[in-house]
Amino acid sequence: MTPPPKEDSQDETHLFESISKDIVDILMSDDIEEKLGTFVDPLALRATEKSFYEALGKKYPPSPTHLTFCKPVEKFSCNYNSSNNFNFQSTSQMPFSSEGICYNGLMKPSVTTNPSSSSRDESILKQFRKGEEKARKYLPVIDFESHDLVVEKNDKEKEHSKCTANEDSKNNRASGLIGGKDRAKRRRNVVVDLSDLLISCAEALAGTDIRTTNKLLKEIRQHSSYIGDGSQRMAHYFANALEARLAGTGAQISSDMFSKTPPPIDVLKFYRSFVSVCPFRRICLNFANQHILDVTEKATKLHIIDFGTTFGFQWIIIVRDLLARVGGTPNLRITGIQPPQHGPRKAQGVGETKHLMEKYFEQFNISFEYKAIAKKWDTIHIDDIKVNKDEVIVVNCLYQLENRLPDDTVALNSPRNIVLDLIRKTNPKIFIHGVTNGSFNVPFFVRRFQEAVYYYSAWFDMTDKIFTLENPSRLMFEQGMLGQEVVNTVACEGSERIVRPETYKQWQTRNTNAGFKQLPLNRDLVKRLRAKLISMYHKDFMIEEDGHSMLLGWKGKILQALSCWVPNEY
Fold it and tell me: Which of 79, 82, 183, 304 has the greatest count of CB atoms below 10 A from its CB?
């Protein structure tokens, strides 16, 4: 295979055009037959095919088949079920859409509709709604004020409930919000500070004032929605977290959410969509990879120790530059430090990463070795990593230490300090550190809640500006990443609370105390990255400098920071 063309290491405009096809080919050739088996579901097959086309940035051809489905889904909601798992559930009259099947709240590829079947569809729809109205009379009703379950009603009450249900159903379709037209109209005319409501609710919950907590939660729910504007969506996820804390289910919900790792093809597809509108990941990888290339220019053996490896896409990207080196490509060894996992998923996750990278690197005759370490990070010893003296060591840790390690800032043997000490013992030529700039790693619940609202409001405002409301990547990012972090921050305590960010200045102090010194920024690199940011992304994104740290943010709010370090001995 011809090596990928050499590009400016800062220019990733054609990133997926140069590597996505190879990755997708690997993923498809290895397990597509196993996944399909002997029975082929044509809709599932088309969904898979469409995801591959989208990952390659190509238009998926229309279906040659004419299938008939019912009328569109009006709306669906995101919540967590009785098993403490977040899911997407349709709250519409019908489970199908003329734009595709709605499965677990996500729209599958579209199919064309046969116009000649429209009258039959109308008949089916009427029968369905008629049966639904009959069934509605026998459903239990919960009185949320008294928490009583009301089952029996007399005929007059049944008729009133039926009329109310019909009216609400019509109004829901018209306004897209829970409640009738009058309520929706009142909401449009009333300005509500959802941040203040959330903080007041947290204060009531901290003071064990359950009645006030429930009252405020009800008000927040009336003005929030996962399909509203940025403030409404933020309030929706924080309300989920407050309810989980109130019910005592936060730890289980958070554990379930963090334990789920999507398949590589889904990660690749989301990544492509996300980096096209949000520069943070692209800038982060450019920053890290360029510094790695600079300090390993003459290395014949390169050992990358990567804290937080998932599928290794970062190292697949860097191959382009390694292949173009004048002195030839170094022997490459990667040690992936993964979070501890249990059950069959542990072996599966390690195998997916190892296999994907090996298959990609072998196309270019690169000497490559991959080793995974999946255990608690503060229990890893230097002997587990097996550092060789003739290797150039690079440590890469991007936004991981604050989410993988508990913190005890008073104790000398804090898990974070233990891991920093381990990194120093590897004697790296460079330690690249990316951190979440948050200040909600505090033991006091209300203060932590306030800081979290302030931090995540910037993220939800950002997604409101860079994604369309219907974009599935927005929903995936908000529910799958922001939502799970909010639940863990708000609804968990003790060892279950793993989202514990600190400010970049606090990390500077930690790293310095651990025996590191900070390297100056590459000003030319920062200048090029800022130019890319201005030319390709929303005007409210920002890159700033503070000493030797590069700061990334939105509308003046610093969200992430990047810096480079070496042991004091250098």
Answer: 304
Q: Identify whether the C-beta of residue 561 lies closer than 8 Å to the C-beta of residue 551.
A: yes
What pLDDT is recorded for position 394?
A: 97
The torsion of the CA quartet 173, 174, 180, 186, rounded to 10 degrees, works out to: 140
The stretches of 224-279 forming alpha helices (DSSP H) are 230-247, 250-258, 264-275
Which tokens sit at 487?
A: 């639940």
Contact between residue 348 and residue 391 where contact means Cβ atoms under 8 Å apart: no
Residues contacting residue 33 through CB under 8 Å, at least 6 positions apart: none
**pLDDT, greater one: 500 or 411:** 500
Nearest to 259 by CA among 337, 372, 356, 348: 348
Q: What is the pTM of this model?
A: 0.70
Please, which residues bridge with residue 87 across strands?
Answer: 79
How far is 462 from 187, CA to CA, in rounded Å?
Answer: 23
DSSP string covering 439-460: ----S-HHHHHHHHHHHHHHHH
CA 146 to chain centre: 37
Tokens for 315, please give them: 């190292």
Q: Give the integer Cα–Cα distance in Å for 325 and 428.
A: 21
Q: Are 406 and 455 in contact (CB under 8 A)?
A: no
Rounded-to-integer distance, Cα 183 and Cα 193, Å: 18
416, 510 Cβ separation under 8 angstroms: yes
Distances (CA, A) of 548 to 17, 154, 539: 34, 73, 24
Q: What's the CA gap between 449 and 441, in Å, rounded? A: 10
Question: What is the chain's alpha carbon radius of gyration, rounded to the nearest angstrom?
Answer: 26
Query: CB–CB of 416/407 below 8 Å?
Result: yes
Listed in sequence order, the residues at least 6 apart from 106 whose beta carbon sits closer than 8 Å to its beta carbon are 88, 472, 475
Confidence of residue 41 (pLDDT cuts 50, 70, 90): very low
Q: Give, in order, the Cα–Cα distances in Å from 243 to each of 221, 246, 311.
A: 11, 5, 34
Please report the DSSP string for 163-204 in residue order. HHHHHHHHHHHHHSSSS-HHHHHHHHH----HHHHHHHHHHH
Q: Taking Cα atoms as reference points, which of 492, 304, 513 lies closest to residue 397?
A: 304
pLDDT at site 255: 83
